[in-house]
Write a structure and sequence with these properties.
The chain starts with a strand and ends with a helix. About 35% of the residues lie in helices and about 30% in strands. The longest helix is centred in the first third of the chain and has 22 residues, at about 120-140. The chain has about 425 residues and is α+β, with helices and mostly antiparallel strands.
């Protein structure tokens, strides 16, 4: 299985991500073709090899002018989408002198631009989903319906090209798993179309919810909304570099060049090693002997809803020969404090203990199998590509048993037979 790792030690932006993917081997001409009418000639997008604090990286560049498709779209709606640029006399290899004007696009207008690309149908749907998430984020921040949201900086042509290009590049690489490091968001403040905000900006920090972040020493915005959107939408896990046999490395350059750190995003691509897939967890325990037993069910539901990976109870014998209950909770390390606060608030315990551990989990997926009694979801577990377990979803079996007035065990047997029949190779 191909594994792709986003190393965000200097943050992430759309052009850095696309530059790194091109640097890792995605052909620029293929990206140009995928952009379709978003880039009507070869000079609309190009790459430059630049140096950032001693590291050579690829910078993805977009000429800041409207395409013919976009001008026609503007004429139809009476809008002016200005993101003009003047090419200096010393040629395209140097930075553009760019004059930014506010760009106001609705989600429908951006969808029209995406439709003008040459992405596959699945790619266009993926790009629409990404911009829908952006629009929902902006709507939540500004307290308005999604259909009234006008995307500003992320509605500019270069941001749309970054996202469409990244969707194509990732579809080309076909990674089976994408992992990201914690994201360095930088520090200081940033000016947007709405004013001066602390780093990360409101849209960025909302998109980074549940992702591990930290503030680096650079006084700059290191994670942009586009970068946050792409990393958090594609990464299934966060942490150190996973075990892999490295095949390719790509560096995507940011615009600024810091003297003390390389302003690049690194992409590592390789084949997953056969080593077990492990992750760090925290085990939290609390002994309880003086609580109404009715509360235990409510507590379990609440802890699971707040992000606990597992919760279970064990009968124990406590001091003074009193029967009690041992609460055991497993969570990600970053969720420990939040879940511990819930335990103290919702139970009568006066102390908890915890320890960090490493656990190995099988790779899991859910598939739907058609059976003579109805469709049943199956939970499939694999290790290094080998299927080790397959179990029908009990809720589906129980529902079908009620609807058909048959024993649940008969539904389970029919489901297992249908699964085994579908798994046998066809002659």
């Amino acid at each position: 299985m191909t594994t792709l790792y986003f190393d965000c030690f200097s943050g992430a932006s759309g052009d850095m991500i696309l530059g790194a993917l091109i640097d890792a081997g995605v052909p620029l001409d293929d990206v140009r073709r995928a952009l379709g009418s978003l880039a009507i000639d070869r000079d609309t997008v190009w790459t430059e090899h630049v140096t950032r604090a001693g590291i050579t990286a690829t910078r993805f560049c977009v000429r800041g002018q409207e395409t013919a498709f976009e001008r026609a779209h503007d004429d139809e709606h009476g809008h002016v989408h200005a993101h003009e640029a003047r090419r200096p006399a010393h040629g395209p290899a140097q930075a553009l002198e760019t004059v930014h004007h506010h760009v106001h696009r609705t989600l429908a207008e951006i969808h029209a631009l995406i439709d003008g690309s040459s992405l596959s149908r699945a790619g266009k749907n993926r790009a629409r989903e990404l911009f829908a998430r952006l629009a929902e984020t902006e709507a939540a921040i500004h307290g308005m319906p999604v259909e009234r949201v006008h995307l500003h900086e992320v509605g500019a042509l270069d941001s749309i090209i970054d996202i469409v290009g990244a969707v194509h590049a990732l579809a080309t690489l076909k990674p089976g798993r994408i992992v990201a490091s914690p994201l360095n968001v930088g520090s200081g403040s940033v000016r947007s179309s709405h004013g001066l905000y602390p780093v990360p900006a409101p849209a960025t920090i909302r998109l980074l919810r549940d992702a591990p972040i930290y503030a680096g020493p650079q006084d700059a915005e290191l994670v942009t909304p586009t970068g946050a959107l792409l990393v958090t939408s594609y990464a299934s896990d966060y942490g150190p570099v996973p075990p892999m046999r490295l095949k390719a490395v790509g560096y995507g350059a940011g615009t600024r060049d810091f003297h003390d750190a390389p302003n690049v995003l690194r992409v590592l691509i390789g084949e997953a090693e056969s080593a077990a897939r492990t992750q760090s967890v925290v085990v939290v325990e609390a002994e309880i002997d003086d609580m109404n037993p009715q509360i235990f069910g409510v507590l379990m539901d609440r802890l699971l809803a707040e992000g606990a990976l597992d919760v279970f109870y064990t009968p124990i014998q406590m001091k003074k020969n009193r029967p009690g209950t041992l609460l055991t909770l497993i969570s990600a390390p970053e969720a420990r404090e939040r879940l511990t606060a819930t335990i103290f608030r919702e139970t009568t315990t006066i102390g908890v203990r915890y320890r960090e551990m490493t656990r190995e989990c099988l790779e899991r997926e859910t598939v739907t199998i058609a059976t003579p009694l109805g469709d049943v979801r199956f939970k499939i577990a694999r290790r290094n590509g080998e299927m080790l377990n397959a179990s029908p979803e009990f809720d589906d079996c129980a529902r079908i048993a009620r609807e058909r007035d048959v024993p649940v065990k008969d539904v389970q047997a029919a489901a297992m037979k249908a699964f085994l029949d579908s798994s046998r190779p066809q002659p």
